[in-house]
Design a protein that fits this description.
Structural class: alpha/beta
Strand order of the largest sheet: 3-2-1-4-5
Shape: globular
Oligomer: single chain
Number of strands: 7
Strand content: 5-15%
């Protein structure tokens, strides 16, 4: 068999493999168990391998690349149009094999283990933050049933709830006091876990040169910079900054037809966590301008003066995304007064 292209439908234990020759004729249709994957592809002649960017994809991409194969990862939504008739593992593998050979296909950069570890810390921290918020809201709701209203903020809960539990005049029964003491302890554990992971992420950020370069951009801190560097394994996969901003879902959706261009709200595609960090950072910059009006000048101040605050934040997040791409693509440091050189047309 002269196999040139292979599509793999990934799973936890059973993998569907579809291979074609240089004429596009199917010459391989096989189901492999997880334990058989390494042996099979180590004996397979070097070829192009396509996979969907899903759970375990980066691990298998590194494993198969070590055998000399060219491995390409694709977003699942780009593979879906190539699935013929009914969906099953064999059809999915065939569609992946077809999609990876398309010259206009967009691919996902393969992450190394360290980048995946940093992103895992980000996801775990965000999970603790979400659980902490949910626990705080539950405590507020239960206290309200007993006529005790708490001010907003996790810190206020941690500071005031112990005195409420100890106060004999508020009418809380003994069962409720024991319950709120238990919930407060759980809240403190979640808070400690989130802070510990944040310190670990910040420690990695201080050791990474690219992440430190991004932190110089107004509106991007250690969390945003480390998440961006770990997520963008290779800035070369984006041709320009607008493609990177579109990948993050920060550019308008289009509904254009018949030569008439119609732009809608931002697409919100891509990684919602990265988009959230960029937008939150933009809001912090706008808050700084509000409390320091003497510094409100330039491009952002003009937008904030004539447009809605959220629109101004999205505009700044979009601009910051393009700056991030430029710094990662060219390996530069941030300069607030940088202007791209004007290239004159050849005579």
């Amino acid at each position: 068999m002269n196999i040139t292209t292979v599509g793999i439908d990934l799973a936890k234990n059973v993998f569907q493999v579809h291979g074609v020759d240089q004429r596009g004729k199917a010459v391989l249709r096989r189901v492999l168990k997880r334990s058989e994957m390494t042996k099979f592809f180590s004996n397979l002649p070097v070829c192009l391998i396509g996979m969907e960017a899903c759970g375990g994809a980066h691990f298998w991409a590194r494993q198969l690349s070590a055998f000399g194969h060219t491995v390409r990862l694709m977003a699942p939504q780009f593979v879906k149009p190539y699935v013929k008739t009914n969906k099953n593992d064999a059809r999915d593998a065939e569609a992946i094999c077809e999609a990876v050979s398309r010259p206009t296909m967009r691919f996902v950069a393969i992450k190394n283990p360290e980048q995946q570890a940093v992103l895992a810390m980000h996801r775990a921290r965000q999970g603790f933050v979400t659980a902490r918020t949910a626990q705080g809201n539950q405590i507020r709701g239960l206290l309200a049933e007993f006529g005790v209203v708490m001010p907003v903020g996790i810190r206020n809960l941690q500071l005031q709830l112990p005195s409420i539990i100890q106060d004999p005049e508020n009418g809380l029964p003994g069962l409720a006091r024991a319950l709120f003491a238990r919930l407060l302890e759980h809240l403190r554990i979640l808070d400690a876990q989130a802070k510990d992971l944040q310190r670990a992420i910040e420690a990695w950020h201080r050791e990474d040169a690219a992440s430190q370069r991004l932190q110089a951009i107004p509106g991007i801190g250690a969390l945003s910079a480390s998440a961006l560097v770990a997520s963008v394994a290779d800035a070369q996969v984006f041709h320009n900054g607008r493609q990177f901003a579109a990948w993050l879902g920060l550019v308008p959706r289009q509904c254009s037809s018949g030569g008439k261009t119609q732009l809608l709200g931002i697409s919100k595609r891509g990684d919602s966590y990265l988009r959230m960090l960029l937008i939150q950072g933009a809001h912090s910059v706008l808050r700084h301008l509000k409390f320091h009006p003497d510094q409100a000048q330039g491009w952002l101040a003009r937008i904030a003066a004539r447009r809605n605050r959220n629109i101004a934040a999205i505009a700044l997040a979009n601009k910051n995304a393009r700056i991030v791409w430029a710094l990662l693509f060219h390996g530069r440091t941030y300069q607030s007064s940088y202007r791209a050189p004007i290239i004159s047309a050849a005579a």
